[in-house]
Amino acid sequence: MLGEAHLTDAAVESPGSAVVQSCDGVPARVNIPVDIAAGIPVDIAAAVVARLRSLHLTVAVAESLTGGLLASSLVDVAGSSAVFRGGVVAYHPDLKVSLLGVDADLISRCGVVNPDVASAMATGVAARLGCEVGVATTGVAGPGAADGVDQGRVYVAASVRRDGCSRVVVRELTVGGTRAIVRRSATYAALALVGSLLASAEVTR
């Protein structure tokens, strides 16, 4: 096993920079564009697609609060069909269990906005859609809190399995702003995370 890393305690005061604890060669800073409300820049998804193609890997996504934005960002890139297998929008908790294999007891104990749920979503969608790479989002877009979790609390996860080895990384974000900003920031952060994971020495060697 390559190991599992949870990157936590990120803070996005507003669209700008998110600082996360560094871990195992995956950069711990993600810069959210200040104009993220206007849309997700295509270049970050294009970089992920190019990296996947160069490594001969395929990807699937599992989305909750982003509701298809992550999948849409990837398929906006010309040539993404070579690497993008598909996605699951599992908005309700029971679908995270039935479609993605997230443990029902974990959701019962911790709720769906949880790093272990994000990790299980990423690995689950990769396994079910026959991919080496999985990416997942879960969180509260707002307006307001949900199930005791504040608006803007987000977990993004990325997993990769290659040559019999596997690795999962998870980041926690606290995003300020509107529902649209939270959802787009989560999408951008998920793309940045999988891009960083794919660029790490343990994956590329």
The average pLDDT score comes to: 87
Radius of gyration: 15 Å
Oligomer: single chain
Largest sheet: 6 strands, mixed
Beta-strand residue fraction: 15-25%
Helical fraction equals 25-40%
Shape: globular
Q: Could you characterize the architecture of this molecule?
A:
The protein has 205 residues and is α/β, with parallel strands linked by helices. It has helices at residues 42-55, 69-75, 93-98, 104-110, 115-128, 179-199, 201-204; strands at 3-7, 11-12, 17-19, 29-31, 59-63, 84-89, 133-139, 153-162, 165-174. The protein has a 6-stranded mixed β-sheet, with helices on both faces. The chain starts with a strand and ends with a helix.
Observed structural traits:
9 strands, globular, disordered N terminus, 205 residues, alpha/beta, single chain, 3-stranded antiparallel beta sheet
Question: Which secondary structure elements does this structure contain, and how are they paired or packed?
Answer:
Blueprint: E1 3-7, E2 11-12, E3 17-19, E4 29-31, H1 42-55, E5 59-63, H2 69-75, E6 84-89, H3 93-98, H4 104-110, H5 115-128, E7 133-139, E8 153-162, E9 165-174, H6 179-199, H7 201-204
Parallel strand pairs: 1-9, 5-6, 5-7
Antiparallel strand pairs: 2-3, 3-4, 7-8, 8-9
Helix pairs in contact: 1-6
Quick overview:
The protein contains seven helices and nine strands.
